[in-house]
Design goal:
The complex is a heterodimer. Chain A has nine helices and eleven strands. By secondary structure, chain A is an alpha/beta fold. By secondary structure, chain B is α/β, with parallel strands linked by helices. Classes of the chains: A alpha/beta, B alpha/beta.
Amino acid sequence: MASFSSETARLFDIQRYSVGDGPGIRTTVFFKGCSLRCSWCHNPEALSHKIQVMNKEGFDKKVGFDITSYDLMSTLLKDISLYKKSGGGVTFSGGEPMLQAAFIRKTLIGLKEENINTAIDTAGNVPFSSYESILDWVDLFLFDLKILSPQKHHLYTGASNQLILSNLENLLKHRKKVEIRMPIVKGLNDSIDDIDNTISYLSKLLEFGEINRIKVLPYHSLGQFKYAELGFKSPNHEAPDADILAEYEHRISHLFTKNRDKKVELSTIN
Amino acid sequence: MDFDSYKDAMYNEMNAWYKTYPTDISELTKIIDQKISSDQSGYEIRGHIYDVAADMMEVKLFPHCPFYFEMASGRNRNIWGMEGLGGYLKNSKAYQDLRHGYLSDAETMWDKGMFIINDFVDNDHHAMGIDVILEKGFKGIMEEALSLLDNKVLSDEQKHWLNTVIKGCQCAKALGEKFSNQAEAFLKSELCNTELSKKFFERIKNTASRVPWNAPSTFYEAINSLIFAREMFNSLDGVGICTYGRLDKVLLPYYLQDIETGAITQEEAYDLCATLISLTDARWDYSQNQVETSTTICLGGLDSSGNVIDNPLTRLIFQAIVDCNTLNPKINIRVTDQHSQGFYDAAVHVSRNTRSSVSFLNDEVIVPAMVNGGLEKTHALNYVGGGCQEVVAEGTQVSSRACWYLNLSRVLTAVLGQNSSKTYQTLDSSSAHPIELKDLKTFDELYREVISMLTAVSVKFSEHLASYQQHWKKVNPAPLYSSTLLSCLKSATDMSAGGAKYTSTTFATGAFGTLVDSLLGIKHIVFDEKRLSLSEFVEVLNSNFENHTLLQKYLISEIPYFGDDSEESNEMAARLMKDIELLQKECRNFADAQYHPTFYSYHTNIYLGMDTPATADGRLAGRPVSRSVSPSDYKGNNRRNPATDIHALKALDYKGFPGAAIQYMTLPIANEQSDTILSAVLQTFVENGGSILEYQFNDVEILKKAQENPENFPELSVRVCGFSAKFTALDKTVQQEVIERLSQVA
């Protein structure tokens, strides 16, 4: 069992000038280790907490490094001017950042002392107590909503979605700002039933709190080469058809037209 | 807006006229040929040119253009200032002999890939003294010249020069009268076929004989004075005036006065601005080889007292730029830490919504840099970008700078003995001599050799150039243009004789990123990791990494590089930059003034790279070197992005670069690149001490398609480096470089 400390974090990347992980210009910190095994994952190097070796263009490169909160803060603060001027900040992503909540809590407090906007990009499969420990210092949660059928969720991610959905509902009940991110993969969650289930669930979620934004993320194969670099077999998935994406968008838009008091931004990343 | 109602007609009328260029001026040049004798000075010959232009040169009005400016001077459609009547002197044997002599010397002096050299003086990239034109008119300049002739003890040369200025002013008067007469004639002709053309001809008839002979008194007259004066200098003085200058500064008093008195409405002012913006575009044929126009306008910044310029006219012109969406003129926006968020947002909005090349010039760095270069602050505050972005103090400074491009990385390859025989032969053995690589025991020893070589090359270059530039006044003086520059008139000395308040020269240095990265490559491979000896490494470079692909990839992707914002690359860049600044100060020009260090590339990085051997940063032989002071485009974006580029600036001191330093930034295409995000990038660039920023974004996939099927993309435009162009009209090599650099961030 991996040990998680509040003194150091295990990361696999720090991406500065990130403009897709929350508002404005951000630095996204990628934590290593995840409690799900989504079959379409485009960051396979994020799954294991262990330091791994990837073969990149003939070179063996270590993937993963440990960093202290102090050193991480030094890097994050380099771009404070860009954050402040663009309405951006710092996003903790992964992997599952919430598996290293103790470290994140400490870093979040440091960021808030500098009045920096903070976001957590989470798959949701951790006890709610982990979220509770950081709620006060998080401005935005980017929360994945993957498959609503519990069986299919288990089949394609290796875990039930019960805890995940409950966490999402709880965050909304705590009046936290939440952006929902929905990866759509052909054959996994692109049937009319899937769409019906999703809309019905989103409708229920609206009763708990305000959803800030919904992002529909069609599957892409950009991360496939990384499986080979890690010596793993690449998964074989496809992007959903355009008409399915359009249907998702249409149904979501319709849902929010019906709930005019709920402001939501809808976007599709292609 | 009214402009929309006459825009198409204006474009059509201009296209029909310019298609006939160059006009036949053989009758005019025949007269000049007859007038000159072998003992006449350049000033006297220029005086004949003014006389013949006044007597015989035709002028041209367009029924649907409110301005009068076009002169049938015999220039080509896509060239200004270099040909036709104005180019008479430059195309003479005296000038061409010097030019060929200089180029031939340079060819034998320097190994290929070290320099790109175009001429011995920069006849282009000038900025006229707009304040003088607006305050005095040509009549006022002439009266001052007459007064000097009457009241001052002068040499014959000075008298000749002043008399030529007087002829130039008289020529301006005569040309104004020609416009006026033509307008009067057109009013009675079939050309006057709309209410608008009648209105335009009426106004020209009543204005052209008065202004710019007299100082303008209205917004319309002031704009026309700028256009007219620029055209005169470009057509008759043998120089290229590249900029209309600081429109929102110099035109503001006229605008406010006319709005207040009701002489003009905001809509009418907008139409005039939109017409001015569109003039360059309408005159150019973008499908010709010469794809860029060298025309700029400058907005924002600080005035001569240090007050922020952001006024209703600034915003009106911003709006006109966006609405016109032309490929030219190039837009230079001066920014400071005193400008409001609203100004930044508006400026960024302009840059994202015009096809023109937009550059942001940081007053907080450029003004102190120019002061460090010897300019008084009040003059430095009045700088403009003249050409692409090359800075020059309007009305006080003559700067020769865009003719000579030094490839910094080639100096290192010369030190390493890679094709360096000519260069060593040129340099005295005391200043630089070939080294035994095995004798270099530390990285610092190598670094010192590079700086020593760079110093020797720079000093030799400047001495050689000055020996030619001293003849400038004899072969291509520009008395009328000079008379608008501070000090020229009072000292009765042409700008080509060093008469302006400041006479600067610089060679543009580029490939800074390639040099920093190559030094880091050698430091790591040879001295830190000891993978190879320096001699072995150079052998690998000479083989163009044959059988060493892994090492090449290692150098490209694993060694710290400029722009990754690592401590090591930042330190190396800072050290090198300071040394480059200091060593250039040892160079002096023909007017005995210190060189003004600058970083600038244009697209010479492609052509310099063709003759540069493989470099120690992993770049293969013949490939483009890095641009200006920008990080290398070919290093990819694994560790580099706009945030690292901008943060790395904190380590660098650009206040030692009075010629400024252009940082090109290639941004990924993404919906999220909003005005807010780019405004933050720009403001942080200013805060962190950058000099000039130009960013580009294009969808690389569309460019690839356009390269394959150009016929399907006739209107596709791209920002190249300091200018915009129609993509398919660009040289194939340039197209490829643009695609490759954009691919790195796609």
